[in-house]
Amino acid sequence: MSIKGLEAQRNYPLNKKLKEIFWGSWCMQTNWNYERQMNTAFMYGMSKTIDRLYPDPDEIDKKKEAYQRHLEFFNITPQCASLVYGICIAMEEEYAEHPDTFDPGAINAVKVALMGPLSGIGDSLFQGTIRITQCQLVFH
User: Fold this and answer.
1) pLDDT tens per residue, range 22-43
2) If DSSP states are collapsed to H, E and C, what string results for the chain?
């Protein structure tokens, strides 16, 4: 584990992290495929964090492992993805700090557990309520 990488991630300005998460989730449906759906877009949003956590060339295996972990199936209402990004970033930091005691499988488990409920809320809110409200305002 690289202390340098963990310190770089923790000292990185929050506003820059938020911009990375915003742009990662903003383009969520631009790179979509039928097999794993939004996985590459999610990986794009996580890549800068992973690169900061594992900057040394001798940690390339850890970096590859993290990339593979975030290239698994992912599908969510794009407006709700930033919450999952934040949780996954915090869990990646925890795994980088305590690789012996933290199970990296928990990161994907939490991601999978949040996809369904957040998509249900997001689809109802953004595709149902807000869209209908906008149409009513336009036509009245």
Assistant:
1) 887 777 877 778 888 888 889 9
2) CCHHHHHHHHHCCHHHHHHHHHHHHHCCCCCCECCCECHHHHHHHHHHHHHHHCCCHHHHHHHHHHHHHHCCCECCCHHHHHHHHHHHHHHHHHHHHCCCCCCCHHHHHHHHHHHHHHHHHHHHHHHHHHHHHHHHHHHC
